[in-house]
Design a protein that fits this description.
Blueprint lengths: L1 E7 L3 E10 L2 E11 L6 H8 L7 E7 L5 E6 L5 H11 L11 E9 L2 E8 H13 L6 E3 L18 E4 L3 E6 L2 E7 L5 H16 L5 E4 L2 H5 L3 E3 L2 E5 L4 H6 L3 H6 L1 H12 L14 H53 L9 H31 L4 E10 L2 E8 L2 H11 L3 E11 L5 E9 L5
Helix pairs in contact: 1-3, 9-10
Amino acid sequence: MELLIIEAGRRSVGLVRFLKKGGAVFFQGDKRKSLDDDTSLSALLQDLAVEEAGGCKVFLSLDAEQIFFRELHLPISDRRKQREVLPLELKGETAIDVEKLIFDALPLGGGKVMAIWAVEADLTEKIASLREAGLEPQVVGSSLFHWQQLIPESVGDAAVALSDGFSLAVYCQRKPLLFRSLVDGNFLEEIARTLVLLEAGKGVQVERVLLHGSAATSAQDSQTGRIVFTQLPVSGALAEAFPCDSMAVENAGAWALATESLRGEPINFRQGKIAYTAGRDRLKKKLRLTAILAAVFLVLLLVETGLRYYFVRTDLSSLDASIHQIYREVFPNRTKAVDEVAEVKSEIRNLGGATASQEILQALNGVAKAKTDDILAIYEAEVDSGQILLKGDARSFNAANNFKSRLDPLFAAAKMDEVKSRPDGSVTFTFRGTLQEGEK
């Protein structure tokens, strides 16, 4: 993902591009143009924006001259709640009605917060110019409030000041202590006076000022009183992000804002009425297409279900007509049918039962004819599921076997299970036979 930082300065406008990779940002290039009286911001941005907009997250960094800030005691740690409370805290204390201002907050620690605000009309105008140039920013703030990213490790917790010639930030123990906008002119003397007043008011002594941006090139290492002005040392992540030290010093402010966007939540005035909605609008368009496709799919599904229901109803109607016709053929004398299907099934069962009984009677009749005087008695006959069981007495083993031989033609399968002799020479037998297919 690429980040595009637009630096709207007093005398120039710059576009600095970074590549986000592995939790860090790396410099990709920059463009800068002077802002003359005859050149509008919109025209200058359109000239700079060629081949810059595609696929970038855009940040607008305002000059401190266009922003107002004040230190307040506010024992609330949540930034969202701080933004909501600040208009109430500052009501009646600003030159413009708070309803026409956009607020953000920077926690300072110790129950203190830096209240930061800008005029909504000015922000709206700048956002419109950028949108016209195809560079609508998602974040509108200022890199000034994130210069703590530039403090070298070698400074430790000592008080240090940073300046780009137009703004000043003072940190003590790496926490923000003072922010201010510098007037055009000899910024070195103005910084020196500010630091003297800071020492007198808060007892914080700053002896070193680190310069970056245009200040680093316009003012070489110098000293005003006991305050030493030096170029910002390039080391650590700052050195890794740029191909050379001069580019790092020139674009250090933009790098600080890009880095803050990865590690924290930068100051952002795009809230309330001027909140960024382009991404949400694009998502709505995508969801709208998805919703249309889903609606078409649902309509097709309903149509298919309706057709299936129609065909099933048609088949059922045809089946009912066929059953009614069969019923009339089977029962021509019945004028009123209660349940045609049940009546036909019942009649089929009755017919099947009568046929089966007839076949069983024929089989038993064959058994009676096969019985001769050698068979003394058949005292048990059982028919179940096409099987017939006969138990009886015979004069001898041969008589029982001959009886089986006479029964073989009557059954599909026949066998004499048990033949037991008695003291008088007679035998008892058990015969099992399977009715033939036509007799079941």
